[in-house]
Design brief:
With about 350 residues, this protein is α/β, with parallel strands linked by helices. About 45% of the residues lie in helices and about 15% in strands. The model is unreliable at about 1-35 (pLDDT under 50).
């Protein structure tokens, strides 16, 4: 009798267990997904009707056009986010931030997200009340110098004064280089990038160091003979993974920002453009169709509209389209994409699986 009762008890437990797990809403993760509090950031965005983005005004990345309207690479990333969240790419409010301001502005909720060209570092991640999204621009440190009358770079020998924006990865890298005796340079730090640039233009320093793309774009706007300037890498260049910032108090909003950027990456890799997205929504491979259909159930759980990715791509374009019209071949700056290509083309842009 005891073995029989034991088997019967096991069978009853197995049946109860199977019944529980056969009910979708009884699964642990489904319960958490449905019980999750709605994103306060998303709720506020929907109430006010615009996405507020912080940017640094730099040529190609963010600036005002002839009509006073903000345009540029980072502005378009903000517009793609607005298309995903609100269905309207132009439902944005662009706020100009300096480097010391952006962290406080994000933490205080003055902006929903910052695209102010900030490098992702361990110290910032560990000590500031912010979260980093995926890197949207991979850069490296550069250094520009006025060519000496004899044609040489003032950085080749002797002492030289180098202007640099304060509290940046470029500043820290040069301080370390000088401290270790690598170069006998004198560093002049400035509160903001425009201040450092103006000092360089005024010949207050022989060289200027910042992100390479930032330097290349700025130098193209100078009224100076091309052969009067030298643009190169410093002896110990730093990596500059530029990533958007959000408050660390709203992880659901962080997921929205992350997956909108990933959608732009994947569309670029898969050849989905603003023009062909409607066609590929029906004829594309399975992952492309999941991308353009928006995976409504998963999207709903993080607060996105069902056609979020489709709207971002159709209204603003994929990552490559955004890059080329603002910084690349279709822009005055003609920057090479370099590492800002899909991973399948030798670049560093990589999207997690849309599944």
């Amino acid at each position: 009798m005891r073995p029989h009762r034991f088997v019967t008890a096991l069978g009853l437990l197995a049946a109860l267990w199977a019944a529980q797990w056969a009910t979708p809403w009884a699964t642990p993760w489904a319960g958490r997904a449905q019980a999750a509090d709605p994103s306060p950031t998303l709720a506020e965005i929907e109430r006010r009707g615009v996405v507020r983005c912080g940017v640094s005004y730099n040529p190609g990345f963010a600036a005002n056009d002839g009509a006073g309207r903000p345009v540029g690479f980072m502005v378009d990333l903000c517009r793609a986010l607005a298309a995903a969240v609100l269905g309207k790419a132009d439902a944005v409010e662009i706020r100009r931030l300096s480097k010391p301001q952006e962290f406080a502005a994000v933490a205080a909720g003055e902006v929903d997200v910052s695209f102010a060209q900030t490098s992702w570092t361990l110290t910032r991640d560990a000590t500031l009340p912010i979260d980093f999204g995926p890197p949207v621009f991979h850069d490296e440190q550069g250094i520009a110098a006025w060519r000496a009358p004899d044609g040489h770079s003032p950085l080749d020998g002797g002492t030289a004064t180098v202007c640099v924006p304060a509290a940046t990865t470029s500043h820290w890298a040069l301080e370390d280089l000088v401290a270790r005796g690598g170069k006998p340079w004198t560093l002049r730090s400035f509160a903001t990038w425009p201040d450092a640039l103006q000092a360089f233009i005024g010949r207050e320093c022989a060289a200027l160091s910042a992100d390479m793309a930032l330097l290349a774009a700025a130098l193209r706007t100078l009224d100076a003979p091309p052969d009067s300037l030298i643009l190169a890498r410093p002896p110990v260049p730093s990596r500059e993974p530029i990533a958007p910032l959000t408050s660390n108090l709203d992880r659901q909003w962080l997921a929205v920002v992350r997956w909108t950027m990933f959608a732009l990456f994947l569309a670029d890799d898969a050849g989905v453009t603003g023009e062909n997205a409607g066609f590929l929504r029906i004829t594309g491979n399975s992952e492309v169709q999941r991308l353009l259909d928006g995976m409504p159930e998963a999207a709903r759980r993080i607060g996105l509209r069902p056609d979020w990715a489709y709207q971002a791509i159709v209204q603003v374009g994929n990552y490559g389209e955004i890059f080329e019209r603002n910084l690349g071949a279709r822009s005055p700056f003609r920057l090479e994409r370099g590492p800002n290509r899909p991973w399948t083309q030798g670049g560093l842009l990589y999207a997690p699986v849309f599944q």
